[in-house]
Amino acid sequence: MSFGFLTRCAVNLVRNPFSALGSVRTATKRAGGTVHNHGGSPGKRLGVKKFSDQYVIPGNIIVRQRGTVFHPGPHVKMGRDHTIYAITPGYVRFYKEKWMRSQRSYVGLVMDRGEVLPRDEAARGRSRYCGLVNLKDPVLAQSTIHSA
């Protein structure tokens, strides 16, 4: 009798090794590892903000960048984080000039919509903005009189 019982236990152990230990719980889902740098910080919203032939006023940001992808041209300045912004009202122009063995990309402003950069200073002179009103121009003179 005891021999039959031992035989049955041995047969059960060979068939299922966990039957002698009782029930064993197994994973129903795969183990997930830890993720480094998950989420992180939000994007910095870099890039070109005002495109070619768009009108800007002083203080408008034209390009937000890391490093000098674009260099400042006429009537724009560069902030300490390399942000290029307008210092006069005008139309945005992007252009390239030869610099050493390669080319540099520049951003500048022109006063009139049809102008191109780089400006031919020998033929057209320097581009200057003083922010003054031409009182001899009848259209501007009327607008300044009515606004005052």
Automatic annotation (TrEMBL):
Listed name of the protein: Large ribosomal subunit protein bL27m
NCBIfam families in the record: L27 (TIGR00062)
GO molecular function: structural constituent of ribosome
KW Ligase (keyword) present: no
Keywords assigned: Ribonucleoprotein, Ribosomal protein
Gene3D superfamilies hit by this protein: 2.40.50.100
Lineage: Eukaryota, Fungi, Dikarya, Basidiomycota, Agaricomycotina
PROSITE patterns recorded: RIBOSOMAL_L27
PANTHER family membership: LARGE RIBOSOMAL SUBUNIT PROTEIN BL27M, RIBOSOMAL PROTEIN L27
Superkingdom, natural source: Eukaryota
Similarity section: Belongs to the bacterial ribosomal protein bL27 family.
Cellular component GO terms, alphabetical: mitochondrial large ribosomal subunit
Gene Ontology biological process: translation
Name of a matching Pfam family: Ribosomal_L27
